[in-house]
Amino acid sequence: MKALVYTGPNKVEVQDVPVPAGRSGAVKVRMRYCGVCGTDIGIFAGKHPRARAPLVLGHEFVGTVEELAGGSGQFSVGDRVVAYPLFSCGSCRPCRNGQPHVCETLKLIGIDRDGGMADYAWIDEDVLFKVPETLSDAAAALVEPLAVVVRSLHQARFNLLDTTVVTGAGPIGVLTAIVLKHSGASRIVISDVDQGRLDICAKFGFETVNVAVTSLVDYINDSTNNEGVDIVFECSGVESAAAEMTKLTRVGGTICMTGIHKAPRAVDLRDMNFKEQILIGSRVYTLREFGMSVAYAQEIAEDLEKVVTQIVPLSGAESVFEMIADPSVTTVKVLVDCQA
Predict the structure, then answer these.
(1) Distance between CA atoms of 166 and 173, rounded to whole angstroms?
(2) Of 148, 125, 133, which is closest to residue 293 (Cα–Cα)?
(3) Residue 165's beta-bridge partner residues?
(4) Which of 22, 24, 2, 26 lies closest to 14, judged by CA?
(5) In this predicted model, what pLDDT tens digit does every residue of 59-80 receive, in sequence order?
(6) Helix, strand or coil, per DSSP, at residue 166
């Protein structure tokens, strides 16, 4: 079968690889779409601390059950499925205390074992969820990043009519803004340096700020009488956003760290004291939140599909990371068509 294989820093290849062997408790999934995410970009760059070549990439996928190998019998051939891609040890303190999604040795499909950018994969039944018949493959491929967003809104204790800023208009930032819109936020401001992405955001009805030309802090202060917003969702992972996020947030407001910063950042802790702000982290999602996202995707499917800006065939996916890095090409969510 064909697969997109990470073979070393800044190098991926479409290779013919053996079809994985079946195992009890798992099903053979014929992959349909697999999303490219920031983690895949980090692996491609050779910067992920755990990923080792050769590795089949991809943990955001939707596919069809093609073969059963025994097990619970909860799936049938032809079922469309998505997978909760996390693996926990079961014995560390977080696992023992009901938080396996932040396991001390957390592992993921597509990072610690081969992923979904391939013709087929054998996936354990206990991490699979059936995709509703009314949900398109393209929308279903976004269930995993949608679960990241659902978790972050839970962590931030979002309330109806809250005012919000989303820093970063990448896939997670745009999905955060979409979920905020459907959840009843009274104001959604999203910032980035990529005007093409911001133009897409404007079509959703979001306020947009290009921080390459406009100060986001000044924009928020001018429009809130220097009060700030209720919640800031930091989705960019960039140093400037970390420096400004306390300035954007009101007294008693919340900052949710949705994006993962790859290095220590300077944060104005004086603001957090004097304004009694809440800073909270958000990493991935629980199994329950992933299941919730499968159901929720049906409600916002039309908007999810609009987040997909490119679909590339697996046969031509060797250049997908160069396309994403090309400043002349506007990308938000790129999917790999694993059957093309």
Answers:
(1) 6
(2) 148
(3) 189, 232
(4) 2
(5) 999 999 999 987 667 899 999 9
(6) strand
